[in-house]
Amino acid sequence: MFERFTRDARAVVKGAVEHCEGVGAQSVDAEHLLLALLDREASRGSFALTALGLAERRESVTRALEEARRRAGLSQAEADALAGLGIDVLEIVSRVEEAHGVGAMSGDRKDRGWWGGRRSFGRGAKEVLEKSLRIAVARRERHIGDEHILLALTARPGVPAEVLADHGVTFESVTRVLGTGGEAKAS
After folding, report:
1. Which residues form the Clp R domain (predicted)?
2. Fewest beta carbons within 10 Å, which of 17, 49, 58, 155?
3. Distances 142 to 101, 129, 152 between C-alpha atoms, Å
C-alpha cells in the first residue's frame, strides 16, 4: 500500500512515528498522524488545514489531544456517555494520577525503559491509513496524498475526528476546500 503514497503522505507517516517516539509511546496512533499533518507545509493537506483556520490553532488542537490522552484515549463523547451512567472520568483520572503520577493513564510515560525496536502502528492508525486508501479509490485517484489521510481522520470516529470537528474541520469542510465535488465517504 505504501508504494501508492505520495511524498507528502509518506512524510506524514514518518512524522507520526517521530511524534510517537517523542512522547515515548510504543505504537503510532491516529493522534500522531494528526500531529504530523499539522507539521506539514506546502501540501494539499496543509492547504486544507490552513484554509479552515486550523494552522493558527495548533496549540488548541495539541491541548485537546493531550487531554484525551490523559483520559486514556477516551473521546469527550465517550466521557460524556460514561458521565450519563454516573461515572466521572475526570475523577478516575485524578485518583489514578494521585496514586501513580500525572499521565499514568495515557500510556505515554517515559519511565518505562528504552524501546529499541520500530514503532508499530496501533489499530487506530492502521484504520486511518486503510481508510485513506479507500477514500482515494472512491475518488478515482491513483495515489494517496496527505489530504486523503486528513479526510480519513475526519471520517473515522474517535478523538482526532472529534478534535478536528471541534475546530471546524469535518469531512465535508475538507472536501469543500479541496474542491473535489463532494464525493461520498468511502466506507
Report:
1. 2-187
2. 58
3. 47, 15, 16
